[in-house]
Amino acid sequence: MKVIGKNLIAFAAIFGPLLHVASDILEWRAGGFSSLQLYINLLGFLLMPFMILGLYWLDRRRLGLTGATGALLYAIAFVYFTYSTIYSIRYQVPTYEDLWHRLGWVYTLHGAFMVVGGLVFVVAALRGRAYGKVPVGFFGVGLLINLVVGLLPVPEMIQIAGSMFRNVGLVGMGIEILFYRDRFADR
What residues have CB less than 8 Å from 58, skipping those under 6 apart? Predict the structure, then answer.
């Protein structure tokens, strides 16, 4: 893959998650959604499907079919989450809880796709030694926290913590692409 393609994937892996973190902080501070927060979220979510599929593509030989399956499920989830952000902007949804009540089981199903797909990607990355253990570990811990949030009634801050861990892991993978280019040379 050409250097520009690797840089675009690294850019998506760094800036998509950072925009998501900024959105979470704005939402938490405001106690709900705002126009600025939703547009920042939209920009971050638009990058996520391309980012995870790009992360797979860069190290596809090590990630194999398992990694492709995980990346595809994660990407599908974020295509839907992008839609949910557009829905929130269009219908001026005030909070995450209200969004969840409006979209119901379909939103929950895509949350499951995100968690399962992400964990499958983590397993493939650890097994294939694709990407560093630390960023992959952060990504996996964040997904496990999100799994707990989906199963148990916990404070919203726990969900934000899960997103933070996930996003730190993804940013770490993006940084790895930038600073260890030779590792991702065409094979």
Answer: 1, 6, 9, 177, 184
